[in-house]
Amino acid sequence: MRNRGAAAKVLTFIGERWAVLFLLLLLAGFGLLERNFFTIKNFSNILYYATVYALLAAGETFVIITGGIDLSVGFVMGFTGVSSAIIMRDMHAAGRPEAACLLVGAVVGLTLGVIPGLINGLLVARLRVPPFIATLGTYGVANGMALYLSNGFPITFLPPRVQKIGNSFLAYFLPGKGFTFFHRPVGLQSKELRSLIGIVPGTVLVTAVVLLVFAFLLNRTRFGQHTYAIGGSKDAAIRSGINVPSHLLRIYILSSLFAAIAGVLYVFRSGIGNFTTMSASYELFAVAAVVIGGASLMGGKGGLGGTLIGILILMTLENGLNIAGIPAFYRYIATGLILIAAVVIDQFTPERKAGGA
Amino acid sequence: MPEASVPVYRKNFRPVRWLGRNWAVLFLLLELAAFGLFGTNFFSPENLQNILVACLPVLLLAMGETFVIITGGIDLSIGFVMGFATVICAKFMLLLQAAGLPPGASIPLAALICLAIGLIPGLINGTLVARLKVPPFLATFGLYGIAYGFSEIISKNTPISGLPPIAGQIGNEYFFYIVPGKAVSFLVKPQDLIPEQMRSMISVLPILVVIFFVFVAIFAFMLKRTRFGQHTYAIGGNMDAAVRSGINVPAHLTWIYVISAFFASLSGVMFVLKYVTGRADAGSARMLDSVVAVVIGGASLYGGTGTVKGTIIGALIIATLETGMVNLLIPSHNRYIAIGVILVLAVLIDQFFPELVGRGE
After folding, report:
1. Predicted local distance difference test score (pLDDT) of residue B355
2. Which residues of chain B have a CB within 8 Å of the CB of A137?
3. pLDDT grade, residue A261 (50/70/90)?
4. Which end of chain B, N or C, is less packed with Cβ atoms under 10 Å?
């Protein structure tokens, strides 16, 4: 009996931390197999591509903790990105100063991002539509709106500074010359330019700040506690005086807002406003990351730290496969497999509080 | 609404209730009327048959989804399983053609192989949901990614072309061609027509519609009249009760997800016959459509309700919308907006007027 108890404890220990272990294993594996994996540039790259996914998954984390789901995030991201890019393009064409174009474009994108969340939230919280269906509805509408606005073509001719800002780094390191912050050292020769190392992409910095703020919100404030409470037991939450409908409304707005931040960030990063293609499946990656991070679709469980590990697993995998020259589409298979594995592992991990064996 | 509160004289005539129960049919009629008014030649025999053809991909996917939703589950993978099936089917047509088989043998054989391979995702979904107790949403979401990944890899990220042209003939021809005042011909277009006669030719009964409605009819019968169908409703109504009344629930659920994947593959075969190509994203937009069709058809996502008749009406609503938009030259991507709105409306009607829709009885 004691042995079985110990075994269960080991299983629980591994079961609860398998995501971190798996991430370490992935890093070690790719590091051993590929020479160019453990470089500052490559890690910077992984983070660079992780930003959009991390933002979508962060919003999804809040929703899933309440026991809901938001399938619309990918298309809300496309919709807000396209709208923001159109504003920037048109204002630029009208000859406004670049700074104003960027600012207004970003603000409009973020503001429009609130609308799908408001609709989702009203449907789920006030009209009691199952979250899955409500957000599937906005998934269609947001997709249609993005295509309608962009006519099915990427929005181009944005002010050139967009991409410059989106691809800047926090600091630049030039071997032998030292650091500069926020801007490239001026007057470099092309040879020096090639050895210039950018440290911490600006988009990563923005994402990190946003995630930190919301991690604080989730872990340390009443808002966060109420989020967990609603997911744990909605009845208990109502009885303990939480205004559940208004809280849920805010959660769905938050999720959409994250998608909007991701959309605007995408515009800054790529310099174009692109609608989300049907098979991009952002919602798959977001939900997978949250579930890999230990959340349960029943609600009440999950956290931004776990979600971040989930995203890092997915992005490391993509990056590693990419370096190894394996077609990008394997990542869809890998993501699907890991998602299912995450649920099965969670299912078969003995509960810690259930009294050991 | 307690029955006692309904005055006797109104009991036999309840137009509001009738309306609520048949709102989908009414909506379809309204839609037809609107497109008929504003469109050109909307009620021509060609166009009406176009609606039937257009409803096929949605209907086939929605048939499988109907079974799944009646058991209280959901299958998100069908869109990409359909894409997977188109790729497999097209690939095997090419292989068999290269092996020297005549089109008459290679096309049905490729379709059969595709339908057989298409069962695999269903089997995996079913095993995950029924045996490993993975929530249907997540299990099929996993397969959604996996199926898409495999089809992109098999198709090397490009639509598969070079299929035997006869495939396209099966997919786009009609059973009868009637030239007024001249002849009726069966299966082949009458030869040597002057352009004027060509224009007045009426084509009747698309081959695709006939082939695939046979499957729909078989499974509609199965759902309504057999023990298998009754068990499906029983599981969705109350899973515990179903277990206690001796139904082998895990085995039954596995079958349900296999059926769903089977219909997704059928839809894939249909796509290959109609468009003579196979592509990974063939069905990516169709998952939403099929769920919408089932929900419009009166199924509840909590399980236990839903009919094939309702699903057919749901699929027709979507197909009419699509065909009407083409007729009015509205860019087709606007359909996503309309379909999203219809979905939410359908659920709201279901939510707020349960006695209206007949669920309160």
Report:
1. 55
2. 340-341, 343-344, 347
3. very high
4. C
In chain B, domain spans: 37-354
In the stretch 65-104 of chain B, residues with CB closer than 8 A to chain A read 74, 80
Q: What phi, psi does B288 have (nearest 5°)?
A: -55, -50
Classify residue A264: in a domain, yes or no. yes
Q: Is B51 on the interface with A (CB under 8 A)?
A: no
| CATH classification of the domain holding A215 | 1.10.3470
Q: Does A278 touch chain B (CB under 8 A)?
A: yes
* Correct CATH for B37-354 of 3.30.1890, 2.30.30, 1.10.3470, 3.30.450: 1.10.3470
Is residue B301 within 8 angstroms of chain A, CB to CB? yes
The residue among A242, A229, A251 whose CA lies nearest residue A131 is A251
A 287-316 → B contacts, CB under 8 A: 287-288, 291, 297
Which tens digits make up the pLDDT trace of A198-238?
778 889 999 999 999 999 999 999 999 999 999 999 999 99
Dig out the tokens for A127 from the structure: 């009209």
| Over residues B226-243, mean pLDDT | 95
When pLDDT is averaged across residues B121-144 and rounded to a whole number, the result is 94
Instruction: List chain A residues with CB under 8 Å of B301.
Output: 130, 132-133
Q: How far off is chain A from B345, nearest CA to CA, in Å? A: 9
| Beta-carbon separation of A287 and B344 below 8 A | no
What's the complex ipTM? 0.85
Structure pTM?
A: 0.89
Helix or strand holding residue B184 (H, E): strand B183-186
Cβ pair B146:A69 closer than 8 A: no
DSSP 3-state assignment of A296?
Answer: coil
Interface of A with B in 137-166 (CB under 8 A): 137-145, 147-148, 151-152
The amino acid at residue B236 is: G
Q: Taking CA B157 as the corner, what is the angle to CA B154 and CA B158, rounded to the nearest 5 degrees?
A: 100
Q: Which domain covers residue A314, as residue numbers? A: 55-348
Least Cα distance to A113 among A69, A81, A148 occurs for: A81
Distance from CA of B337 to the nearest CA of A (A): 4
In sequence order, what are the residues at sequence separation of 6 or more whose Cβ sits closer than 8 angstroms to the Cβ of residue A215? A303, A304, A305
Asked if residue B339 lies in contact with residue A140, where contact means CB atoms within 8 angstroms, the answer is yes
Is A330 in CB contact (< 8 Å) with chain B? yes
